Amino acid sequence: MAKTIQAIRGMNDCSPTETPLWQWVEGQIKDTLASYGYSEMRSPIIESTALFERGVGEATDIVEKEMFTFVRDEESLTLRPEGTAGCVRAAIEHGWIYNQEQRLWYIGPMFRYERPQKGRYRQFHQAGVEIFGISNAEADAELILLTARLWKKLGIDQHVSLQLNSIGGLEVRTKYREALVAFLQNHLDILDEDCKRRLHTNPMRILDTKNQAIQEVLNNAPKLHDFLDEESKSHFETLCSILDAMGIHYEVNQKLVRGLDYYNKTVFEWVTTALGAQGTVCGGGRYDGLVAQLGGHSTEGVGFAMGLERLVLLVQEVNPNVQLARPVDVYVVYQGTGTTAAAFNLAERLRSALPQLRVMQHASGGNFKKQFKRADKSGAKIALVLGESEVENNSVVVKDLFGEVDQITISQTDVIAELTKRFA
Ligand code: HAM
After folding, report:
1. Which of 61, 110, 269 to mutate to test the pocket of ligand 1 (most atoms within 8 A of CB)?
2. How confident is the model at residue 210 (pLDDT cuts 50, 70, 90)?
3. Is 287 one of the annotated binding-site residues?
4. CA 34–ligand 1 middle distance (angstroms)
């Protein structure tokens, strides 16, 4: 036998038994976005490497070490590690955000060369949302309300909590960074290698180190909020007051800075303790400078992205009774002369009249016993049975495979009414 070829490490297949839950989660997300009036945009999975270097930031983990980059015709290309940069690139290129507000969303695979573990993969999927052209905190609040509504629909709202922070503008962060570096210079002995490296490249990322000893020292570090400018402060106060009024609980976490360079003012994360180390199911914030930085007219932006693998894992963990659609509702079995055409006719008629039903027709021959085994395995609730005598009388046997109703024989003319009743 030829040697089999396996999937690439950190990149997963989704089996036909897993896809119904994925489709359900994606359906809840799309319905929620539609109910807020957002529009879907789509963009390529591959972009110029320069887009992420300039957009996400050279000193971020993503750009420094996690991108899948390759050269084709002397051009450096990268599999998108996140969706915001591509969305902004497309919005500038096509004039979607020139002098107008936009509320956009996208869904699809992202790629990061990280060490795979539960909840962290090299190909993963995000649903992301970006609002353009609104500077007010109302936009930030709307995004948070939208996510809170979605958690309720997914049945995970009791298992996620909101972390919120304001990181101000560039000037604020420059001043704060200086103060933080000066503080940490006095504690060099406690810093690990990773933090020492970040001290010179991206010192604010040290704030969310998992190293407990460093975290304790950081408790005495200068506080970001003491450096905030008036505008950022009032933006944050407005956001908090809307969330308070709407009954959204949050924790202000001054150490939350996020791993991408484009943020200013609001940053937030929804986290869970139910998934182990990879507990952030959704992260986002404001990025008022990014559009201009990527060559567009200065336009404010705010958005977030959620990790679909983590959401699916969380739903499985805390909401195992979610009602998923059956893959097959009705299975058509038939045997004998003249029954093949009758079965095709019946199945096609059902699909036209009852498009919401999932109708599978047996196709691999064999006697009724074998066909009923297939029908059971398909998960169908109803089997429709056609033998020679049924074809002759224009009738059909309706058999409840779950054994809830006795088997009956009815005229084929009544089958649509009968199934409508059974699946009401
Ligand atoms: P991010 O925090 O890098 O933000 O990613 C958002 C979410 O994607 C994370 O909270 C997590 O749920 C999921 N995620 C990230 N990396 C992985 C991975 N390796 N495996 C599985 N899931 C993962 C962004 O990407 C920003 N573009 C979000 C944004 C949109 N900010 C403003 N607009």
Report:
1. 110
2. confident
3. no
4. 22
349 annotated as belonging to a binding site for a ligand:
no
Q: Which of 82, 90, 43 is nearest to 61 (CA)?
A: 82
Distance, CA 321 to ligand 1 centroid (Å)? 27
The rounded Å distance from CA 114 to ligand 1 centre is: 12
pTM above 0.85, yes or no: yes
pLDDT tens column, 301-356: 999 999 999 999 999 999 988 989 889 999 999 999 999 999 999 999 999 999 99
